[in-house]
Amino acid sequence: METYSPHERPDLANDKIITIQFQKLSRNGGPNGDLQILTEWDCRTEKELLDKFRKIFFSGNDFSFIPIGMNLYGFDLISLIYRLNHHFDLNLSMELFRTRPVIDIKTTLILINDGQFKGYNLILGKKQPGSVIRTYYENKDYDKIIEYIKDETANFIKKYQILRKQVPKLREALA
Fold it and tell me: What is the CATH code for 2-156?
């Protein structure tokens, strides 16, 4: 998910979600289908974007759509709930994501980063900081946003697969 903030600091009341991207992953964490990118500029408004995603996310059972990412609890899911409530008067809370499966690798990355919060996100090796999205959006460089998303997704999946591959070794070590 990418957001646009007209200010330097995030502000849920004034920021908007401009993309929501998702891709089905296989059991080993690799891609199992195409990357889906819903964009505000294709849907015309944030509300239409969220409505389209809402129909996907809330269709099926709790296991039909499992969010996997980094810092989901710290930003993405909070923003998503806030903006859904804003547009659709749903009265959703974070409880929704405490009762549904979610995989957030932030804490794992902090452990890998020697328990340090500062710099944990650099482990994923992002090519560009997320702050470029603001400039791209203001300049209507939508193709650059799409490329950023594709690069970030490919990089995340690569690192997520490495983590998935190491889990059996960790399970053995902890047994």
Answer: 3.30.420
